[in-house]
Each structure stands twice: as C-alpha cells, then as structure tokens.
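Write out the 3D structure for:
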Amino acid sequence: AMRHLTRSVALAPENSSLHLAIAGFYEQLKTLDKAVEHYRLAVSTAADSEAARAAEKRLNLTLVKQYAASGDVDTALQLLNSMLEEYPNDARILQHLGFAYLIANRFEAAAAVYESVLDKEPNNDAAHMNLAGVYEKMGNVPAAVTHLRRAAELTPNVDRKNDALIKAELLEADEAQKRGDLEGAIAALQKVLVINPAMSVSSNRLAGIYREQGKIAEAEKILLAATGANPDNLDARMNLASLYAERKNFIDAIWQLGQILGKGDKTAQYSVAEQLYQQLANALGEKLESVRSTAKKKNELIQALFLDPDNVTAHYELGVIYTQQRIYDKAQESFENVRRLRPDNPQAYLYLGEIYNQLQKHAEAVEAFATYISLENDISKVEKLKGPFAMALGQYLYKEKKFEAALTQFIQVLEIQPNDAYAQYHVALISAQKGELDEAVVAYEKVLASVPSNTAARINLAMAREQLGQLSAASELFGQVAAESPAGKLKETAETRYRLLKKRLNGLTTSAGYSVTIDDNSNLSEFAPSEEQTSTLYTSFDYNYRYSDQWQLNMQYSPSYATYHVGHYDYLSQSIEPSATYDKRRNLYTVSYRYNKLEGLLNELAVSSTNLYSLSWNHEVEQGRRLISELTYQEYSATTNSLFNSTTSGLNLSYSKSLGKGVSGTLGYGFSANENSSPVNDDTAYRSHSLSYRLSKWLSESSNVGLTVNGSMTNYLHSDRFTRVDFSVIPETRRENTQWGLTLSYNYRINANVRFFASANYQQNDSNLPVLVFDNRGTRDTKD
C-alpha cells in the first residue's frame, strides 16, 4: 500500500488528499517524522481550504505524539491547549490531552479530561479504556474495572473487547490476592484463560495460587493446558518441571526440562532449567538414562494414542508407566481402556485391582481381583493374590461398617504378612471402636514399630491410653504429635488434649454441675407421702503436681450446695482431699485423706464431719486384665448428737477383664465393719458384704451400653433396741438387711462437646425387722 501511495504522490505532488492519506499510513506505522512531513505538504497544497484546516489539525496531533514520545510533555500540553481554543469540543484532541497528562503523571487532570469526553460521548469505548488506565494508575481499581467492562460492551472490535475484559479480570485477581481472597483470584484468572487459553501470565499465576493452597493436581492441570495451548510457553514448562521435581516425579520433570533446553541457550529459562536438570542428574546418578528413556517412551506412547486411540498395547504400556509413577487416576484410565479393548486380559484386572485399592475404590478393587482370579490359569499367581484380595475386601467391608467381617479379612492379611502396618492399623481401629482398648493399644504400638511416622496411629494410641486412665503415657504421645505434625486438624486435637492432660497431671482443673431432683415420696410413707424438690450446685477444684516420673501429688477441694425447696432447709458440703500416687510399671499405689464437713446455712447448724483414710493398689495383671484393691478407714462425727459417732473400716476389691468383641466385665467385692462410739447406740454397729458384676458393651465408637447386678448383706452386731411392732420391744433380735439391684445404662456421644446418658435402675431392700419412717406430719408409721 505504501509503495502505491508513494508512487501516486510522486506522480501528483500537488494533490493534498494523497499527502493526507500517506501521512495517515505513516502515523499508523509510527513513522512520525514522515507523517509530519506529508501533513505539512497537505496543508501547503490545500491552501486555505477546509481540507487544509483538517490537515493542520492532524499535523498538530501528530506533533503532540512526537513531543510526548521524546519526553517533551510540556510542549505537547501547550500545543493541545492552543488547539482546544480553536476546537473546544473535539473528542480526539481531548483524548490526546488526557494521554499527555497521564504521561506527565498528572492523573487527576487526565481523569478530568477523559470524564469530560465521556460527558460529551458516553459510548466512546476508547475514552472508557483510557480512563480505566488512569484510574488504575491512581489506585482506584473498582473504577478502572467498571470502565474496562464498559469499554468491552461498547467496542465493536473483538480483540479490543477481549483485551479490556482480560485487563479487568487481572485487576480483580490482583485485588482479591491482596485481601487474601484466593478463591476470588482463582475465579478471575480462570475467566482470563477462558478468553485466552494461551495467556501464560494468567496460567502461571493461577498455578502458583493452586500450589500455595496445596492443590498440586489443579496446578498441574492448568500448566499442562497452558503448554497444550502454546507449546512454546517455557514459563509453564519450567513451572511444571519444578512441580514434578518437588513431587519426585523425575520422569516428567526430565521431559519438561529437555523441552526447554532443546530451545537453546538464548531463552530466558535456559539457565534455570539447566541448573535444575543438573540437580536431578546428580540425584538420579546412574538412573538418569533409564529415566530419560522412560520419559521418551511415555511421550511416544501418548503420541501413538493421539494417532490411534484404540492402540491396546500403547494403553497397557502407558498404564504400567503411570502405575510406576503412582499417577493412579491416569493409570486407571489406561487399564480401563485395555479392559474395554481386551476384556480377557487378566493382567489388566490385576493392575486395576491394585489401582482401585490405591484410589480407595474398594468395591471395584474386589470385583477386579475376582475377575483376575477367574481369568488367570496359573494357580501360583492366584495364590500370591490372597493377601491383596483380603486387604481390598477388608477395606470394602470396613467402609460399609461391617467391622467384624472386615476384622476377619485384616487378620488374614496379617497371617500372610505379619508386618503389614496398614492391616494392623485397621485392626487397631476396629478394636477401639468395639471398646477393646487394650487390644487396640497393642495393635497401634505394632503399627508405630513398623511406621514411626504414622501420626494418626500415634494420636489414636494416645486417645486409647487416655481412656484407659494412662494419663502420663497419653500426654507424652499427644505432645509428640503436637510437636511433630504439620498444621491441621490432627495437630489442633493433639495440642488441645496435651494442654488438658498437662493440667490434669500438673496443674489446676475445675468442673461444675447443677442437678434437680423431684421425689414424690421422700419419707417412704404409704399413708402420707411427702414430696420434695431438691436442687444441687456442685463444683470441684483439682490441683495436680507431678513431682517425678513416678510420684504424682494431688489436692482436691469439692464444695456442693443443696436446697430442699419443700422442707425449706439446705446443706453445704465441703470436702478437701490430698493424695499421693506412686507409679511403677504396671502398678499404681495411692494414699489419700479426705475431710468432709456438712452444715446447714439457713439454720446455721453444723451437722457432721468425716475423716476418711484410704490406701489403694491398681495392678495391671496382663493386657486387658486389671486388679484394684482398696483399704479404707472412716471416722464419722455428728456435731449435734454424739450418739451417732462411729468408725468404719472397709476393703474393696475389683477385677476387670476384656472379654473380646467390645465386651468387658468387672467383678467387685466390698466389706465394711462399723463400730458405734456410744454404747447406748451400739445396735447400729454392723458388718456388711457386697458383691457386684458389670458387663459393658461398645456398640460403636460413640455408643456404649452397660448392665450391672449388685447385692449386699448387712448384719448388725447387737439386738435392735428401738424398733417396735405394735409398740412392744423385741430386744433379742438383731437386724439383718439384704439388698439387690439391677441397673441398665446407655451413653451416646452426639458430637465432640455433647454426650447423652440414660439409665434405668431397680432396687429391692429387705429387712427381718420393721422399718420406722415418719410422714410429713411427724407421726410414725411402721412397714415390713
């Protein structure tokens, strides 16, 4: 075009229109000197006509561009302002003026000029675009985005529209990242890639955000799409190589680096790629050539499938490579294609079974293994599948919450591979869910012996030990998880439990509760029952001090206040109990003393005080079996009437045993010997024997049911002096009381903070002598 125009001007040098046309072309080509030359010739050849005036205006605008390009903004502004005196409403002059102000960093003035253009021409897309640039410089991003989107709506040019939309989304992404809204930034950058998939800046930024979030698969997908849209996007290839190297995917890392290095040392990415390649070469050593060969073969197979999607050999070999790389989703796709094309290929099903297992698709894994067994004729190969098949079946059954059946399969795996940590871990999980905590502890310890870095096993072991009352060991385990785990839910749980256990072992813990009791026959009278409503507030302050690994000291203060609303009286009970515990291997020895004082606040009367001394021995006989014995001695003193002062000695024994399948049993025996200090009231002295048995069953990891049967026999040492039948004394009869009871209990953990309890109790008391009770009028009533 320029050649033809130049020749035309040479043939007709006085034609102002030709000079004007060629000047416009030179201006578009940014050859401003030539443009100025021909604009001046157009002015001179057009004389004083309207064409000369138009040519002069275009000449001056071109001179403005020249001045601005050379940095002489002041001269450009002077010329533009003089032009505005002649053309005050010319939008093109105003836009040039705004641009000059922008170059001079006079942003407010530039914005005012562009706003005035839009006042005159609201649909001027170029003015919206330029004003957006000014607002961006001023830091007013929302206004910039608004004008960019308006420019995109108005312009008929598709490229300009896309350019405006891309700039708007990039600004939105910048702002979102600044305020920490990574999801907002991701959404904006994804819109950019929809408009222009080959835009490397957006793809690399988006991949960077995904990597920051730990979404490595998404980052890889974006970068692969970027290299697919533009194979020469070396930034994306470099980021891919870095990502693969971090994940130890040396095959794909070497391939991407090879693509960059193949472009020669003139590229900006060459030196970085060469450095990373050398690092990988040093790490791989002799394996480098094998990795390069596999990378080459892998990409040849991908190309082969591009040419022939039904190439079964390529699908199979590519699936093997993906499996070796542990890229299981792509390996699954490859072998499913093999199955589609060759449904009688047993090896495809074997690979699919292993891949499904890795992808936690256990039902599909079981089906694939079963198909392999039916197709494989070599019995020795089928025998080798027993372990993997049992593992897949166990995982499927566990997912379906068929825990007993799953446990059978995991035990079968352990019979074949005793050191399989994954099977051992599931045995531990199921044991814990069934309430077999001792068995769970053993299994978790085996897991940690094989895989010390298994954080989940360590924290579960800590929880099991805490439930068993092994607080010191549990605290140590929680502390290890809290110190070594990365940020996340496990670390938070471990830190919380560690703090609480540290307080229980060496610090102050508190608790408080409130209860309401409604009794419709508090005086046990058939003729005149008396109703009572009681509310009780109770608290406890428990301070522990761990003196050494073996010695634990404790001080507990427990006040409670009970109000009897019908009888209009109250009781304040206060007890203080120091204790010391010595821990030696499987034995816990505890010595304690408790002082309790009971008094009424409304009537200002002290009621009684109690001194209790105890010595206990807690012995772990073996895993799942525990023996607890306790000796007690109590002194009771009635403040208002010494007639009731007494001493009581006691022996308590309990033996607990895990019975398997989530069931545990506890057998208890108690003996008490009471002596009354006053000879007048010696008929209250007694000897008592009690026996109890409790069965507990874990229905699930969050629910438990228990059944307790208990009975006791109390024989009084002296004849009863005060019990009367028909108001006649029976002095030679000693009282004998028997009692038995049945309790059914259930508890369910609704969530981490709420637990539901329910219990039903039946109790029967029998005596060989009548029982004296009082009704609410103070009259006596006897009953058998």
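Residues 174 and 185 are 7 Å apart (CA to CA).
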